[in-house]
Amino acid sequence: GAVVSQHPSRVICKSGTSVKIECRSLDFQATTMFWYRQFPKQSLMLMATSNEGSKATYEQGVEKDKFLINHASLTLSTLTVTSAHPEDSSFYICSAAALPGYGYTFGSGTRLTVV
Amino acid sequence: EDQVTQSPEALRLQEGESSSLNCSYTVSGLRGLFWYRQDPGKGPEFLFTLYSAGEEKEKERLKATLTKKESFLHITAPKPEDSATYLCAGTQGGSEKLVFGKGTKLTVNP
Q: Quick one: closest CA in B to A97, which residue?
């Protein structure tokens, strides 16, 4: 139980285009989902907290207009990287908690490469 | 500032050579201490959650313990398939955010 599905697993896009990443909770409802990015050989850095039916809460230094988050249902959150640039290339991972504070399940991650 | 510090950064073991990974934290009002395993190119895989000092949890060759200031992940008689990066994270009371350490990269040689 508590499976989080993330798609796509890999994406290559041209500089200036936008990319959407989906995160779905398959067997539970998630009122809150989290988006992280991870650079090579570094740990996960929280980008934003996504709340169903309301605006996402972004961490300090994360551009809201570049990283658009939509959490339209209890099982789906999306992250759209707008006007992507090579420096946005990274590993993006989502997570959700079936019960807040008690175990977080992570998606398999999305490797974004901007060329 | 809430911090989670893991040591060592990297650890090489021979198959069967037991050892421990350390996670020290300065998260005020720690609500939960989490251990995850991450394989290259994959998302973290949940291992354990510990909530109070003195608590211990086991899963196969892994055992996690928690004191008031740190947590240990003990690996008994590791196998090559235990090679991965092990991440420690904490949550603060009243917050759902996970604060991650930088991880320990474990390599187990056959």
A: B96
